[in-house]
Amino acid sequence: MAFIGSKVRDELFSTDKSAIGADLRIRGKHYTVVGVAESKGLSAGEDLDDVIYIPFTNMSSQIVGNNALTGIAINGFWLEAIDADQLNSAQFQVTNILRLRHGIKTSGIDDFRIINFVDIMSAFTNVMGSLTLMVGAIAGISLVVGGIGIANIMLVSVMERTREIGIRKAVGATSGSILSQFLTEAIVISVVGGVIGVGLGIALAYIAAMLFKFPFVIPLWSIGAGFGLSLIVGVLAGGIPARNAARLNPISALHSE
Q1: Residues with Cβ < 8 Å from 214, sequence gap 6 or more?
Q2: What is the C-alpha to C-alpha distance for residues 94 and 105, in angstroms, rounded to an integer?
Q3: What Rg value do the Cα atoms of the chain yield, rounded?
Q4: pLDDT, tens digit, for every residue of 189-221?
Q5: CB crowding 52-84: b at 16 or more within 10 Å, else e
Q6: Rounded to an integer, what distance in angstroms lies between the CA atom of residue 11 and that of residue 39?
Q7: Among residues 171, 133, 139, 198, which one has the least CA distance to residue 254?
Q8: Residue 9 CB burial class (10 angstroms; 0-12, 13-18, ≥19)
Q9: First and final C-alpha spacing in the chain
Q10: Low-confidence ranges of the chain (pLDDT < 70)
Q11: For residue 86, what are the contacts with CB-CB under 8 A and spacing of at least 6?
Q12: Distance CA 87, CA 119 (A)
């Protein structure tokens, strides 16, 4: 009998129903498919869906060719503890058993390696934390640069439209309306940039999910945060140019070239 991964199922059969009970041949040996594993994706660079599980003794005698006299050669095996709190205790016991079986003395060096997935997850968490800080720093720099760019655009816009501002004030426009106009323009520019940025981020996340077999999940709060930051940058970057435009003297503005 054999237990196959979902990728093997997709390549050899159409559905779970057609796979279960089907005949499978491995190195000339016939096996009956008794089950299909759920999709698990990649783990440490290994595709957990592109696997076939068969009985250990059967694999040893028929596939590998080892017998009881020469022993069974394996590259590794997995153990699962009942409780996560018992992992360290289980690791200690497995280490002692392997040292005894391998005839390693008290001062000897282990000829095997035990990997505790709690340690791997801890290391992964630390790496992800560092990456998050790095991405956050890059995002912060990008916001500052974007804010400076919007501020420069609005300052140039106020300078080029000084005469227009003077005419508007001369016919009755208030300083508040001028302030609102330029502040709105800055916010619109910033929000448009935010829309483009959010769209690119979603597209890159989708491509990465397809390439690395990760679930494609976009939290709504992240989209809202992107638009919120864009709005804040627009207000901060456009505040000074809009204030300068609102404070212009209409007579001086009308005489400007």
Answers
A1: 41, 208
A2: 16
A3: 33
A4: 888 888 888 888 889 888 988 887 777 888 888
A5: bebeeeebbeeeeeeeeeeeeeeeeeeeeeeee
A6: 14
A7: 171
A8: buried
A9: 89
A10: 42-45, 61-74, 256-257
A11: none
A12: 10
Q: Hey, how many other C-beta atoms are within 10 angstroms of the C-beta on 187?
A: 20
The C-alpha angle 101, 121, 208, rounded to 5 degrees, equals 125
DSSP per-residue string spanning the chain: -EEE-HHHHHHH-SSHHHHTT-EEEETTEEEEEEEEPPP--EETTEETTS-EE--HHHIIIIII---TTT----S------SSGGGHHHHHHHHHHHHHHHTT--TTPPPSS----HHHHHHHHHHHHHHHHHHHHHHHHHHHHHHHHHHHHHHHHHHHHTHHHHHHHHHTT--HHHHHHHHHHHHHHHHHHHHHHHHHHHHHHHHHHHHHHT------HHHHHHHHHHHHHHHHHHHHHHHHHHHT--HHHHHT--
- Structural tokens at position 105: 């003395």
CA gap 146, 149 in Å, rounded: 5
Residue positions counted in the chain: 257
Residue 115: per-residue pLDDT: 80
pTM: 0.54
Q: Which position has the token pair 């205790």? A: 89
Q: How far apart are CA 56 and CA 190, in angstroms?
A: 62
Q: Per DSSP, what are the bridge partners of residue 46? A: 43
